[in-house]
Amino acid sequence: MPYVAVKGGEQAIQNAEALLQNRRRGDPAIPELSLDQIEQQLTLAVERVMCEGSLYDRELAALAIKQSWGDLVEAIFLLRAYRTTLPRFYYSQPLDTSKMQIQRRISAIFKDVPGGQRLGTTFDYIHRLLDFKLIAEGQVPTAPEAEAITEPVPRVIDTLDREGLMQAEEQGSRGAGGRGQGAGEEFFNNPQSTVNSQQSTINSPQPFDLTRQPLTFPAGRDARLQNLVRADEGFLLSLAYSTQRGYGRNHPFAGEIRMGEVEVVICPEELGFEIAIADITVTEVQMVNQFKGSKELPAQFTRGYGLTFGYNERKAMSMALVDRAMRAEELGETVEGPAQSVEFVLSHSDNVEAQGFVQHLKLPHYIDFQSELNLVRKIRQQQNNS
Fold first, then answer.
1. How far is 349 from 239, CA to CA, in rounded Å?
2. In this structure, are residues 337 and 245 in contact, taking their beta carbons and an 8 Å threshold?
3. Nearest-angstrom CA–CA distance, 262 and 351
4. Which of 151, 159, 161, 319 is a plausible cystine mate for 228, CB 3.0–4.6 Å?
């Protein structure tokens, strides 16, 4: 920290940290927030931090939110920093989202779908009015009860697949996604490969690992999806919006949005067979986009894919829209908007990197500015003398 070099800087930094801790705690007369309260009542914040922090641990995400004074980007930074200290014992198998225990599942392209529409928990159908009843303490709303869905619910996209109207995706680690056959599943679910290459290439037999390898260009779809799932939600939302306003020629339909529990499976070498170690909540989105075809491909539908930790619907939808936009070049479409530029999107979407680069401007730049100041003075003097 350059401020340490300034006279009295170290003591000033210590005082600033102590002041931060005091302000973060707030009025001591008010009971302190517990991690359980944050985890249970700020669930969407916790799940965003887990998703963009790349670590599925609700308690640690709640701790990061508390420590960061409610700044979610700072909390994501804290969680990622802690993640780098953890050893990696096993590599999980691709998540099988076709066997998801559904909590919410809707489709905007078919009214009647196998398994039915299940609205679940959502803000979509409520009035955006402040609920002053929440000011009163101790009220516990009752939830309607229904039988749990125990049977796997087929994907809506499979209907289009069977008719040959959906562009076929490559099977395996580079394409349609392992066990569940969903577009891009394995890109997100199995990034922890033992691949030695330091570059994401289309011909690599192993998925790219963004957590261990630096991002390089050209980036395959596996690397792109891993980058998007860690990307800032607000940035992706704006890019997704831009594609619908003419900067990407996207005309998307929500083919399917589903949220629920899936099993995490590992296959330890010492056992030689698969075992389930946890159930986690994920949100999966498949967007359907019209594709007029080309010389090589007939007119058909293409898809964008999004998969996130937790109930993170807006992020997963934005991810799917941007994923499809970045496929423009491979589909022979003209690259016209920022969301279609792979290098622009991937290089600027990470909020940890972005906040660091922006906030470094607060650090001392005395020498740099003095040189700029002297240069401007010199130019002005030359202009006045001419």
1. 10
2. no
3. 27
4. 319
CB 284 within 8 A of CB 131: no
309 DSSP β-pair partners: 282
Segments in 210-297 forming alpha helices (H): 221-230, 233-244
- Position with higher pLDDT, 293 vs 379: 379
- Rounded CA gap, 182 and 306, in Å? 10
DSSP 125-191: TS-----GGGGSSS--PPPP------SPPPPTHHHHHHTT-B-----STTTT-GGGT-TTHHHHH--
Per-residue pLDDT at 379: 93
Assess contact for 310 and 281: CB atoms under 8 A.
yes
Q: Which residues of 265-293 are buried (b: 16+ CB within 10 A; e: fewer)?
A: beeeeeeeeeeeeeeebbbbbbbbbebee
Q: List, for residues 121-174, the tens digit of each pLDDT value.
A: 899 888 888 888 888 877 777 877 777 767 778 888 888 888 878 887 765 434
Q: Which residue has the tokens 């899936």?
A: 262
Sheet holding 252-266, edge to edge: 101-106, 252-266, 275-291, 300-309
Beta bridge partners of 259: 104, 283
pLDDT value for 201: 43
pTM check: above 0.90: no
Question: Is residue 326 within 8 Å of residue 342, measured between CB atoms?
Answer: yes
Tokens 């970045």 belong to 326
Identify the pLDDT of residue 242. Answer: 92
- Do the Cβ atoms of 306 and 317 come closer than 8 Å? yes
